[in-house]
Amino acid sequence: MEEVEITWLRVTKIWWSLIWRGVIYGLIFGIVISIPLSMGAAALGLNQAQAERVIQNITGICGLLLGIWVLKIVLGKNYSDFRIALLPSDEALLDHVKEADNGSIK
């Protein structure tokens, strides 16, 4: 597999892909999750400060998970002139070769 040069245009395409998805999905997710959480906090009788802390903690954790999901989407995307591929490092390839050699000896 031939590597392509890391140019500012390609980096910008990846960055923009991450940003717009993160913002749009984050807004949608924030609205969808905050309403039930607010209603749940009210049903539990939490005061304003307690409710805010609980909602911020839950949405923060969910936001981290959402960010990982968005990154997975971006890593799998085909761009106009490239795609992102994860390849094993040279060290991992050497380890794999060593393991294969040891397996054939046994």
Q: What's the number of extended β-strand segments?
A: 0
Structural class: mainly alpha
Low-confidence stretches: none
Radius of gyration: 22 Å
Oligomerization status of the protein chains:
single chain
Helicity, as a percent range: over 70%
The biggest beta sheet, please?
none
Q: Determine the strand fraction and express it as a percent band.
A: under 5%
Shape: elongated
What integer is the average pLDDT? 89
What is the ordering of alpha helices and beta strands? HHH
List the total number of helices: 3
Terminal residue distance: 33 Å
What would your notes on this structure say?
The model has no long low-confidence stretch (mean pLDDT 89). The two termini are 33 Å apart. This protein has 106 residues and is an all-alpha fold. Helix 1 runs antiparallel to helix 2 (48-75). The radius of gyration is 22 Å and the shape is elongated. Helices cover 75% and strands 0% of the residues.
Give a quick precis of the structure.
With about 110 residues, the chain is mostly helical.
List the helices and strands and how they pair.
Elements: H1 8-43, H2 48-75, H3 90-105
Helix pairs in contact: 1-2
Task: Throw out a few tags for this protein.
single chain, mainly alpha
